[in-house]
Amino acid sequence: MKIKLLALLLGILMMGFGLSLTGCEPEEVEPEPEEPEEVDPEEPEEPEEVYELVIHDPSSILTFKEGLPYFKEEVPERTDGRVEVEMILGGALGDFEEQPDGIAEGVFDMGMLPIGYHPGKTPLWQVAEMPGITDSIYAHNMALVEMAEHPSLQAELEERWNQKVLFPGSMDSFEMLTADPIESVDDLDGYSIRSIALASTVLERLGADVSAIPGPDVYSAMERGVVDGAVFPVDTFVERDLHTLADNLVLSGQLGFYFGLVTINLDTWNELPEDIQEVIKEVSEEAIERNIEIYLEANLEAKEAYEEAGTNIIRLPEEERERLQEVNEQIWEDWIEEREEQGYTEAQEIFDLWVETVEKYEEKDPYADEWWPERF
After folding, report:
1. Bridge partners (DSSP) listed for residue 163
2. How far apart are CA 307 and CA 304, in angstroms?
3. CA gyration radius for the chain?
4. How many angstroms separate the CA atoms of 312 and 247, rounded?
5. Are 204 and 331 in contact (CB under 8 A)?
6. Dihedrals φ, ψ of 359, to 5°?
7. Alpha helices (runs of H) in the chain, residue ranges in sequence order
8. Sheet harboring 209-211: ordered strands across?
9. pLDDT in tens, 47-99
10. pTM for this one?
11. Domains observed in the chain
12. CA atoms within 13 A on the CB side of 65
């Protein structure tokens, strides 16, 4: 009996102990939701960084430089104001010969390098001035774009001058405007004429008395009889009113081109975000086409001006063009030899590639049928 009573008491105690343990467990409490931080609707977002680009050009904006104001207008708009572009004209930051140095040293960020003014600073790029290869501004521009990817030409600018090519700007091909009819290369012997770039070398070898008068001063020089003619693209003669001073427009399509390369300081380029770089590349491609289309319009307007002035249009006969081409080919050979002597062992390869690339784009020229003067 005592044993049963003890067992009953022990069972009651165990049940009580279990209940007490169960009662010690804490009840689960759901956490109260955190209240969101109050945001002041008037507090402005942190502004994005604005990149400033300064373009410098020693002269005014002539036809072949129309890509620069297009760039100045389009890039800020397409980047929603994240890029601001300032353009300084007139040579306040240096002349044509100092243009590569100004960009390289970061005096300004961008500009056009006129290769003809400093061939010693960019000797390999002078290949694109070679006379007698093409008279197609389209082929010339597109070949420049492709050749900019050549390792040696790229290195000449990036490694030596700390800059990257964005887009080229070519004038139309050089022609002559003269006071006297030039119907044979013999007529150039002793003739006083203004010229620049490798066109000067061609004329000098034909016996001409060549002067490298700055463009803005040519009107005065012709008016005073300092020179009897000049070399420019056909639209520039009209742009500078030279067609009112000389009666003969002499066409050969063999005097080469004057061109520039719009470049940007390499450090500046590398600091730009990738999305802005892409916008600049896009606008640069458009600037090339815009330049050519503007030239087409300018040339057609020039045609009307020549007709109104009664200008005598002379297309050199084929036999005279062949004689002119003989001089051009000798200039090619001399250029290759001089560059190789300077240590540019790739000069022949670069020249051959230039000719091949130009010919490729000549076949694709979409403006050929509507261009004036008619292509040779």
Report:
1. 265
2. 5
3. 36
4. 6
5. no
6. -65, -35
7. 2-24, 67-78, 99-104, 137-147, 151-161, 197-205, 218-223, 234-239, 266-271, 274-309, 318-341, 347-362
8. 209-211, 192-194, 229-232, 175-178, 248-251, 312-315
9. 689 999 999 998 876 667 788 999 999 999 999 999 999 999 988 999 989 99
10. 0.84
11. 51-171+257-310+343-368 (3.40.190.170)
12. 20
